[in-house]
Amino acid sequence: MKMDIISQLQEQVDTIASLTFNMIGTLQRDAPPVRLSPNYPEPQTNPPEDFAEQPKLMSAAVVKAAKQCDALVTALPLAEGGEEAQLRRIVELQAENDVVGQELQRQLEAAEKELKQVQELFSQATDNCLNLKKPD
User: Fold this and answer.
1) What is the pLDDT of residues 48-57, one digit of tens each?
2) Which of 26, 78, 98, 105 is 20 to 30 A off residue 69, Cα-Cα?
3) Rounded-to-integer distance, Cα 15 and Cα 7, Å
4) CA distance 120 to 118
5) DSSP state of 47
6) For the segment 87-97, what is each residue's pLDDT rounded down to a tens digit?
7) CA 41, CA 104: separation in Å to the nearest integer?
8) Distance (Å, rounded) from C-alpha 61 to C-alpha 16?
9) How many CB atoms are closer than 10 A to CB 12?
10) Where do the TM regions start and end (predicted)?
11) CB of 58 closer than 8 Å to CB of 23
């Protein structure tokens, strides 16, 4: 499945966040305690055997993901015409949105009017049906 650049960028940011979250959790879990003061006894340490390599590997994964993110950002198309052209385009889109919004409002009002007519006809029809029914 081919994703657009924005979706890939979002996925990559999520990957960076996940890697960072896991790296911080691993460091909190496995890092040896530090002696805070000479007044305290030396802390007991039992770090995992591969602890020295874990931060390096995790950091490398975060850096790799960040580089992939940079590559995706570089691949994004540049905005044409600069800031002034973008602002003009925004004004055009807002005007177009207003026109479409007014048309939708007219359609909504027409639909509400039609609904009211249908409800009145339904009410008349049910009244007629009730009047035709013979009492028991």
Assistant:
1) 777 778 888 9
2) 26
3) 12
4) 5
5) -
6) 898 999 999 99
7) 75
8) 9
9) 19
10) none
11) yes
pLDDT, the chain, mean:
87
Q: Is the dihedral of CA 22, 25, 27, 30 positive or negative?
A: negative
For 115-134, what is each residue's pLDDT tens digit?
999 999 999 988 888 887 66
Q: Are 66 and 17 spatial neighbours (Cβ–Cβ below 8 Å)? A: no
* Helical residues (DSSP H) of the chain, grouped into ranges: 5-30, 54-75, 82-132
Nearby residues of 65 by Cβ (< 8 Å), 6 or more positions away? 12, 15, 16, 19
Characterize 108-134 residue by residue with b for buried, 16 or more Cβ atoms within 10 angstroms of its Cβ, and e for exposed: eeeeeeeeeeeeeeeeeeeeeeeeeee
